[in-house]
Amino acid sequence: MREGLFIKKNIDKWRQYQYLEATDPDEMASEFTELVNDLGYSKTFYPHSKVTQYLNGLASRIYLGIYRNKREQSSRITDFWKKELPLIVRRYQREIFYSFLIFAGFSLIGAFSAAHDETFVRGVLGNSYVEMTERNIAKGDPFGVYKSDGRWSMFLWIAVNNIKVSFMTFISGIFVSIGSVWNLFKNAVRLGAFQYYFFAKGMGLRSVLVIWIHGTLEISSIIISGGAGIILGNSILFPGTHKRLHSLMRGARDGIKLMIGLVPVFITAAFLEGFVTRYSSMPVLLSASILLASLAFIIWYFVIYPIRLERKMKDQPSTAKF
After folding, report:
1. Which of 69, 119, 190, 212 is 20 to 30 A removed from 52 (C-alpha atoms)?
2. For 287, how many CA atoms within 13 A lie in the half-sphere containing its CB?
3. Could you tell me if 195 and 62 lie in one domain?
4. How far apart are CA 47 and CA 107, in angstroms?
5. In a domain, 75, yes or no
6. What is the tens place of the pLDDT at every residue in 153-190?
7. How many domains does the chain have?
């Protein structure tokens, strides 16, 4: 095999081993075994090549990782949020972006359908919900639904429901991503119809400033969950150089880590909806500040920070490069 073809067939796997450090000992040992095999092949056919030096350095790092002293639990948790999760996000930003495009597209379809069919909103949201909202609008409190229950009971119910919806969106990706796309479709169409309904009533800006206090984190979590589901589905459809079962296990593991990383976001969104959104008459500046702060966090942690972290790690001379 020519050296260029050898590199092309394995470069994605090597980069994954380099930038996504395994924490499970069995996984680390498996990676080390694969690297040793690649290194042996490289030493045999390309003994003086840079790729041989690169693989030797990478294998050495993993070897040291297997036998190094175990870190404290607090250190592992910190590393997860500061390094491991952002690098996973970076690796799969394309899938998350696809999920965003799918969700945005279906939301527009929901809004368009609601604009051209008066019965569509009732069909999607249900007659009882629409009639309740109509009564609240007549009473001068269009967002009274967020005050209908106690703070703690509402917070707990919403948190459990958000986690349930998002995990179902992820798990359904096992059906070659179609299940995740279907869940994105259902939630996006509802959102589009729901948001259009308030714009049609002349309360568009007000609804944005109220609903998206919690909706920014909630909808972002559903989109990222959809991305995790697409990762799961793609691991079956496109195993690359791995065996299909091994690829599925890796996709499932990375997807689960993404979902674990979203749990605090779910809880924060539920807290905002249960304790903050109910104050629908709060000053515009305060409402906009909460909304923008949530949006800034999502963009920073799930877009900007992973890119910066990857660049920083690439600049570190911990392993040879070619």
Report:
1. 69
2. 19
3. no
4. 56
5. no
6. 899 999 999 899 999 999 999 998 999 999 999 999 99
7. 2
